[in-house]
Each structure stands twice: as C-alpha cells, then as structure tokens.
Amino acid sequence: MMHMAVKTIIKYLKIYRVVWKYSIIERATYPAEFLTGLIVECGYIGIFVLFFTVLFGHITEIAGWNYYEMLFLAGINLINGGLYWSMLFASGLMRLPEDIKNGNVDIALLKPINPLFTLTLSKPYFTSILSVIPGVYIIYYALAQLHRMPSLLDILFGSVLFCCGMVIAYAIAVMLSSLSFYFLNASAFPEIAARGIDFYTRSPHSVYTGALRIVLFFIIPVVFISSIPSSTVLRGVEFQYLFLGIGLAAAFLCMAILVWNRMIRYYSSASS
User: Fold this and answer.
1) pLDDT by residue (tens digit) across 55-100?
2) Which of 17, 40, 219, 225 is deepest in the core (most CB within 10 A)?
C-alpha cells in the first residue's frame, strides 16, 4: 500500500510539473495580459507594505510584535498569498461555481485523474506566484534589521508549520468551495474562503483572545498559515504548536476530501 501511495504522489507531481510548464507558456503567449497582471500584483504588494509602514508610524508594537517582526510576518503572508492565488483561486476555485452551473465539470470527471486535483490544482496562474519574490526579499530585509539569524532547527520547524498552514488553507478553501455543488448559485463561497484566509493571516496570533482565539486555533486554524510559522522562525519552536499544526493539517485534509466527495455527488452533468 505504501508503495502504491508513493507512486501516486510521484505521478501527480509529474503532472503538476507539466501543468505549470504550460501555464508559463500560456502567459508568455499573451505578454500584455501578463504585464497587466504583474502591475496589479506590484500594486497590491506596495499597498500591503505601505499599510504596515503607516500603522507603525503611530504605534511601536502590536501584541508584542515590533515593526520588523510584523514586516517578517507580512513577507510570509505575501508568499502564502502568492501561492494560494496562483495554485487555487485565480483560475481554479473561483471558477468552480460557474463551471458547475454550466456543466463544465463533466470534462474533469471523464479524465483519468482525480477530479479534486483537476478542479482545484490543475489551472495555476503564474503571475500571482511572482509575489513570492518580494515576499522573500521582505523576509530577508526584516531579519537583517532585527540582527537575528534563526537556527537551522527553527527554520526547519518553521518550514514544516508553513507547509501545514498551506494544507490547512487548501482544505478550508476546498470545503467551502465544494458547497457550490449543492448550492448552485452560491458563487461567493470561494471568495469567502480567499478573503477570510487573507484577512486573518495578517495579524500575529497573540492578538486574538477569548472565544476568537479558540476558533482561529482549532475550528478555523488560520493562525498556522502565517503567524505561527513566523513566530517559530523568529522566536523559536513551541512544540505544542508544532504537533498541533501537523495534527490539524492531517485532520483538515481528510475532512476536505470527505466533504468534497460528499458534495460532488450533487453535481448534475450538462447532459442530465
């Protein structure tokens, strides 16, 4: 069974590499569209950084996080956002409600590939992933200003939590978007997932208290997307968060697959 699982993972990684290759070729074919998308991405990044600069012109810290720590968090958030929009939302989940309504899901169901992969990951948007580059630069700049060099273990554990956050975000997006199979005119579900993830990942987890903290740690654990990985790299690993993040990622991925398989049963093909 383990051998088959490894073969399946390798197979989909190869498919995903080909998908990205053709996505890049497609964007290069239409340079004007690519340039427009790039300008939009640069504008978003500029506004994002300007927000923190203006905010810290009036305060010195947020819940114990100073300007450069918040800038580091902003860099992580830019990387996450670029990956989410490029892999999930821009050309995939945002179009899912319309594809369901128009019966375009038939093609995905006929392919010899898992429809969850086809409908959520097979249409990457190359332009959005370019925001990863300034995100990396902002992280480097913030660390330089903090005069802090994280240990290899902190970087390793932070990377593990970063991956867990990616899985959690993917699972949340899939679960919300899959409701479109049941509620045919509910095109807002992917938008709710995208904006909700983006909104709650901008603040450090120490900001949240009371019932909201419980919700954002256990029920909709978006704090593991940017804040917890950032804290791990900057301040060292807290093993309760590491184990919780891994457990939540596994649990949410399983739930997402179950919800998707349940919801897709409500799909009516174009020929029915």
Assistant:
1) 777 777 787 888 888 889 888 888 888 787 777 766 677 788 888 8
2) 225
